[in-house]
Amino acid sequence: MEKFATVRKNLEDHGFTVSEFATAAEAAAYLNGAIDGKTVGFGGSGTLQTMGLYELLSAHNTVYWHWKTEPNAARRAAMDTQVYLSSVNALAETGEMVNIDGAGNRVASTLFGHDMVYLVIGRNKLAEDYDKAVWRARNIAAPHRAQQMGKKTPCAIKADRCYNCKSPDRVCRAMVTLWEPMMIGKTEVVLIDEDLGL
Ligand code: SF4
Fold it and tell me: 162 CB less than 6 Å from ligand 1?
């Protein structure tokens, strides 16, 4: 796909496996076929939710998602699964992926603990370079997420930008950049030519 040609090449040069799909439905069908009979953890992700992947995969896998069941138990269980799914807050055309987290389970699980990690990313997450990817994660994704969660942070009022707040409700507690797949396990980037997630 022309839109993803540059980022795909750069991700592959960094060692990631990459697949791409025109629609979220096609990507969901692919993942539903690839993941079978496994234990599966989900990170907090509007992309995964929009795609209905929890419902699809739960029919033939054991899936843990803190958005669907008791959060703390699900977060812990999801950290020790064979497969992990998440999105990212931004993907640089140059091949880096940026994620911000509050509880830490999502960024931790993209780094360690699973045989296979799928990062499912809509076209709206693309940024021109690393600095713009960080900017997007901090000024678009995080404020919108804070607003969605009803947090009492300055960014949640208008979701217009990050104010680097000192609020007890701050959702940005850590930021992780994925440069290459971790040494243990495999990471596949699933690119989708639709707007998905924040
Ligand atoms: S640091 Fe605070 S103001 Fe900035 S995006 Fe995160 S929660 Fe919002």
Answer: yes
